[in-house]
Amino acid sequence: MAAAAAAAGGASRGLWARLGDTRLALWCRALLRDYSSSLRDAAAAARRRPALTAAAAAALAVTAGLARSVPDGGSLESAAVAAAAALSRLPPGSRSPRAERRVLRLLRLRERGRLRVRNLGLVAVAAAEPHGADAALYRARCPHLRPRPWERGALLDVGFAGRWWLLEAALRDPDVNEEEFGHLPEPLRRLRPAQLRSERNERLHRERLRAVVLSEADIGEEEPLSLRAR
Prior knowledge:
About 60% of the residues lie in helices and about 10% in strands. With about 230 residues, the protein is of the alpha+beta class. The protein has a domain at about 75-180. The protein has a four-stranded antiparallel β-sheet. Helix 3 (about 25-50) crosses helix 4. The chain starts with a helix and ends with a helix. It comes from Chloebia gouldiae. One of its GO terms (cellular component) is TIM22 mitochondrial import inner membrane insertion complex. InterPro entries: TIMM29. This is Mitochondrial import inner membrane translocase subunit Tim29.
């Protein structure tokens, strides 16, 4: 009789009522209670320390923005192609050898499939792989035999905040050929910005072109002594 009554009571409760007594439902309710209590505690702490909460929220927003702005491999290839097009418009004698070597290396690695870009969260690291992506060699497939990005000769560029910094540094003065000044002494090979944009030199240049105006006193002082004696 008791078993029949229990079966009749379970049948009358319905499907959702029976699912609510399962272990999964109990675990979900406990998880929701924990999360709701954590949210209430966080809201109370935010009301007690609003400045610290605002700083933490701003830091999280900045971190999320930097993570979203990390460049990828396609942006590095596009930047290398654009840099090569910009260098091709310059005369060969006035191109920067440093910029030309870096751009040509990136293009060669891109053509051979050896240019790899790894996203590390907030920054991206571009490295040169010893083998292409389609190589079936054991040295190319084994992850323990691959060179690390920070090893000598493997690191190519560092991407941060949507920019590739080493490539931009190499293209800072693409129309200056540093090798033209190799025969000069070391102090004369490089000029400081103050020497290139000197206000004193500009002022002296303007004074050189200014007309000389002589007063009557100056003209009288320059008269010959024979005229003064008369």
